[in-house]
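Hi there, hope your week has been kind to you so far. For a while now I've been wondering how a particular protein folds. I'm sending you its amino acid sequence along with the backbone structure tokens. Could you read through the record and tell me how the tokens relate to the sequence? Take your time with it, there's no hurry, and the full record follows here.
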Amino acid sequence: MALAHVPKEAKLDTRDPFYPAGQCGMKSLALVLLLIATRAAAAPITIEGINFSDERGDFTILRVTGTGSLADPFVVVEDVTGSEPILVIRFPNEGFGNRVGTRDPMGMTIIKLAINHSGTIWYGYRIEPRTMLTLSSPDSDGLSLGQGWSARPSMASNDFRHVRVIDQPYDALDYDDGRVEEGQTAVFKFVLTASIWQSEIFVVQTPEVGIACVWPQQTTVC
């Protein structure tokens, strides 16, 4: 499925009740800070029976749509403000199933729209799914980026022309050869499959703020 066009400049919706309009005095500023704290502690977004949470910090989930299939991926819009946002996906039961067509008991497609409000320029981006927060995903946990699937779709991005798909000894996507400035939006598409049912998946994200690598002017899967 082709990635939909996404405007490069991302602006806050002034209709959002959390949007601080105009110049604030001390009382207004206190109210804004209270609202921000309330939003950060908001409940996870539940869709199709599973939960998407920004509880680990460094970003805020603005919305989630879709069903997780190849034709109708989950579209997760994130306002990234820190250096390591971690998306937490929870499955209360095994009812979600596999929506990408592999033989695994679990499978989904995700498109992430990451709005850069981190205060830095991104020259690369890593996405690493894990079953344990502090450990990279080994083969034994069953979680993968569609490893071994002959029909695995391209793990594309609209802002980074090169992506390295790592299947062993851990699972990760390393995007580079691009540039995402403050206020711009990067789009990433990938699949998650699991040969063993998982109740919780951590999608660890690490923007690269160092010097950009130079690759051929096309998306290449290593």
User: Anything to note?
Assistant: The chain has one domain: 46-208.
